[in-house]
Amino acid sequence: MTDELEAEPDAAAAVFGDRIDLARRFTAALAEHGEERGLIGPLEVPRLWTRHILNSAVAAPFFDGRVADVGSGAGLPGLVLAIARPDVQFTLIEPMERRTVWLNEQVASLGLHNVTVERLRAEEWARGRVFDVVTARAVSALRTLIPWTAPLVRVGGRLAYLKGANVAAEVDAAEKQMRRFGVVDVEIHVVGEGVVDEPTRVLTATVNR
Asked: What is the per-residue DSSP string for 12-28?
């Protein structure tokens, strides 16, 4: 229910700028329909702005060119990033039909001309290494994500995952997969301090072959 949605944080307008109205509309729609449509859990609406919307949006500076969001789900982070960065082209890759229906509805409702929705798994992508950046949020551990996502990135392109507090341990556990897929120059960035209660950790890396 929308009456359970937390108050819009003061930082939201600064993060989204002149796109704040689109962010408000998407957040309200997700608060109203997200649980009933199996997009978010029952405890997420009261912290939707801080834990999900702003958590995704503060990562916007890491993206450019053509971007794929793997396992986009409710549109986190892909739709949020597309709202924040109208200059970037986003492809939302999601295998579940009910989620792609939701994503397409939101793209149409919000008039997002920089978004394409594809119903498939990342490993089913057959159109080559066309993306400048590939992202994912709350999808899987790094050792699983790399084989799914690195083959979508052009040589010299980047991975930019939104990860949790245990990201350093995930990096250690994924050493074999990083070597296999040419993932180098791994860095962990902490962003959103002073904006969100729990800063966002963005793992970036280059795919060199």
From this structure: HHHHHGGGHHHHHHHHH
Q: Which of 189, 197, 140, 184 is nearest to 168 (CA)?
A: 189
Q: What is the pLDDT of residue 198?
A: 82
- Give yes or no for a contact between 41 and 35, defined as CB atoms under 8 angstroms apart: yes
pLDDT at res. 3: 52
Q: Are 6 and 44 in contact (CB under 8 A)?
A: no
Nearest Cα residue to 171 out of 148, 137, 198, 205: 205
14 burial (CB, 10 Å; 0-12 / 13-18 / 19+) is exposed
Q: What is the pTM of this model?
A: 0.95
Residues in the chain: 209
- 17-26 pLDDT per residue, tens: 999 999 999 9
Are 80 and 53 a contacting pair, CB within 8 Å?
yes
Omega cis (within 30) before 77: yes
